[in-house]
Design brief:
Distance between the termini: 53 Å
Strand order of the largest sheet: 8-7-6-9
Shape: globular
Largest sheet: 4 strands, parallel
Radius of gyration: 21 Å
Strand content: 15-25%
Number of strands: 9
C-alpha cells in the first residue's frame, strides 16, 4: 500500500486530505427515578396534558390555514385532540412547489459545510434542551413508551442528523486524483427540482430524516407528514428552522395523500420521492 502511494506521489499525482468530522452515537438515557432527564420529561408531558397544538401548513415561510381542518388524536386517549391541523389544497401544494423551486439555486450553492452546520446544531438541540419536548410529543401523539420514544425521537434522529452531516462532508472531500498539468474536481449538486418527502406514522426519526437528508445535500423539499404524527413532525420541523434552515428549503405540507401524490407527480419540477410507509 505505502509503495503504491509513493509511486503515485512520484508520478506527480496529488490529493487533498482534510480531518474528518468526528461523531459518535447518541447515548440512550434511562430515565431512572430522580434523574434530571426524567424530571424534564415529566414536566414536558404535564405541559401537553389536555392541550391542542395548532399546526398550520407552512408555505414560503408563512403559516397558512385552509378550511379542511383535521385533528390528531392521542392513540390511547381519543378524547384528547393533541393537534389541530389543516390539509393543503392542490393550489396550495402548487404554491409550495413554486416557493421551493424559487429557493433551490441559492440553497444548492450554499457550501455543504454551512448546510451541515445547520443539522449538527439541530442535533445538539435535540440532544439537549429540546429532547424532552420531542419525546413527550412522540409519546402522547404516537403512543410510544419512554424507551421507545428515546430510541426513536432522540437517539436515532440525532444520529441521522450527525452522521448524515459527517458523510456529506466526506463525500465532498472524495475527489479524483490530479496531476501537475491537470486539476480534477467533482462538484456534488442538488437535483434540478424538488423532492417530495412522505413520512410514516410510527417513527419521528424517519420523518426528520426523509425531509432532512435531501435538504442537507442541497435539495428543496415538500414534507408531507403523516396525519397521526403531526405533533412530533412539526416539533422537528421547528427545530430545523431554529437551527438555521432557511424557510423555503422545506415546505411543511400536511395534505390528503392521493391529492398530494397526484399534484407533486404531475409537476414538471418533481425530481424525487423519499418515502417510508405502507401502500394498499
Amino acid at each position: 500500500m505505502w509503495r503504491r502511494l509513493r509511486v503515485l506521489r512520484d508520478c506527480g499525482r496529488r490529493w487533498q486530505h482534510r480531518p474528518a468530522l468526528q461523531v459518535t452515537n447518541e447515548p440512550i438515557l434511562e430515565y431512572k427515578p430522580g434523574s434530571p432527564e426524567r424530571a424534564a420529561l415529566q414536566k414536558a408531558l404535564a405541559d401537553l396534558k389536555g392541550k391542542t397544538e395548532e399546526i398550520p401548513c407552512v408555505i414560503g415561510g408563512e403559516e397558512v390555514w385552509t378550511p379542511t381542518v383535521r385533528y390528531q388524536l392521542s392513540p390511547f386517549n381519543h378524547a384528547h385532540k393533541v393537534a389541530k391541523y389543516c390539509y393543503a389544497s392542490k393550489e396550495l401544494i402548487n404554491k409550495a412547489i413554486n416557493a421551493a423551486v424559487a429557493a433551490r439555486k441559492e440553497w444548492d450553492l450554499k457550501p455543504v459545510q454551512d448546510r451541515a452546520q445547520i443539522f449538527l446544531k439541530a442535533a445538539d438541540m435535540l440532544s439537549g434542551p429540546r429532547r424532552a419536548e420531542v419525546l413527550a410529543k412522540t409519546m402522547v401523539g404516537q403512543g410510544k413508551t419512554v424507551i421507545q420514544a428515546e430510541i426513536d425521537a432522540a437517539a436515532e434522529l440525532i444520529d441521522f442528523f450527525r452522521f448524515n452531516a459527517k458523510y456529506a462532508l466526506e463525500l465532498e472531500q472524495s475527489q479524483p486524483l490530479s496531476v501537475d498539468i491537470s486539476t480534477n474536481s467533482m462538484v456534488y449538486r442538488g437535483l434540478e427540482g424538488f423532492v417530495a418527502a412522505v413520512s410514516p406514522f410510527n417513527f419521528t426519526a424517519i420523518g426528520g430524516n426523509l425531509a432532512g437528508a435531501p435538504a442537507l445535500m442541497g435539495n428543496v423539499v415538500l414534507w408531507k407528514p403523516s396525519d397521526t404524527a403531526l405533533l412530533s413532525s412539526y416539533a422537528v420541523y421547528k427545530i430545523l428552522l431554529e437551527a438555521g434552515l432557511p424557510p423555503n428549503v422545506v415546505q411543511f405540507v400536511p395534505s390528503d395523500g392521493p391529492e398530494f401524490g397526484d399534484t407533486v407527480t404531475s409537476s414538471e419540477h418533481f425530481c424525487g420521492l423519499n418515502f417510508t410507509g405502507s401502500v394498499p
